[in-house]
Structures are given as C-alpha cells and as structure tokens.
Amino acid sequence: MNSYWERYLPYQKRLDIPAKTNLLDEGTISQYAIYIEKGSLRSYFNNNGEEKTVQFFFEEEGLSSLDSFVNNLPSPFTIVTMEPSIVYLLHRKHVLLLMDELSKETDFLMMFMKITASRLTHYSGEFISFIRDSREQRYLRLLNERPHIVQRVSQHYIASYLGVSTVHLSRIKSKIAKGNAHF
C-alpha cells in the first residue's frame, strides 16, 4: 500500500500549522482526508455555544468527517489542531482514485475491513461507556487505555470529552490521587 500512497504524495498538501487552526468547520462539506505527521487534533461540535469534544487524533493517524466526506453532507463537527502540527491533506478526488487503485489489490478489502472494524469497535466501546459507566469510570478507562491523551491534552478538552465540567474533572483526579475512588 505504501507504494500507492507515495504515488499520491504530489497531490497532498503538506501544512505546518499552529495550534487552534481549523481544518474543517462544522456545517461545511469535508473535501480532504487528513493524515497527521506531527501534532494533535480534536473534533468537536457546538452545543448551544459550548464545545463538546468528540475525539482526539495524534501522529500517524488519519481522519476526516467521514459521512461528510463520503456522502457530500455538511460536517456535524469541526476538526482543529490542539498543538502545532504537520498534516497532509489529500483531496477527495485523489482519495477516490487511490481507493479505486487499491481495490484491485488482493489484500486491500480485508485490510480495509479490519481498519473499519477496529474503528467501529472503538467508537462502540465509547458509546457503551457513556451509557454504562460513571464519569469517574470513564476517566479511569481513559487513563488506563489511552494515557497519552491525559498527558498531552488540555484538561478542559478532556472534561468536554468526558462530559463533565473542569471542576468535576479536578474532583475526580483528586479522588483518584487520594486513593478514595470507589467506582
């Protein structure tokens, strides 16, 4: 697959951009697949003037507002850098050409299905966690399964991601630090 990806390097826009740079605005149609070489991004939506973080992305990850990108629909969320980042943008028309080429490869369909299944499993797990787990359990799960987020992401973004206020997140962290967490 790398040889195919490299073939499309001339069509990619390499951006070396500062923190808080929007790569996609909520309500616009996604035209690019994004690959992160360096830095971190988050996706969020606006809920009555309050940003609600949906997901975080880091080095060597790709993303897009998939439904928007595939179906030419307005994106339900914004994608923005959280720290200075180097990203590559590949326009939709080139992604479609790349997919067409790759679809002829014998292992491509299985690889694509595995990547899709992995993403769906991750998002399903998060959805179930929001229904089943307490806020404290969600934070502990984040801390145990994805500690790089806790280390690299601002507390107010983590609070938004967990669906708590920054004050509540501070209480959760204090409780855990004291060893008084009963989850």
TrEMBL record:
Residues 17-100 form the Cyclic nucleotide-binding domain. Pfam families: cNMP_binding (PF00027). InterPro entries: cNMP-bd_dom, cNMP-bd_dom_sf, RmlC-like_jellyroll. This is cAMP-binding domain of CRP or a regulatory subunit of cAMP-dependent protein kinases.
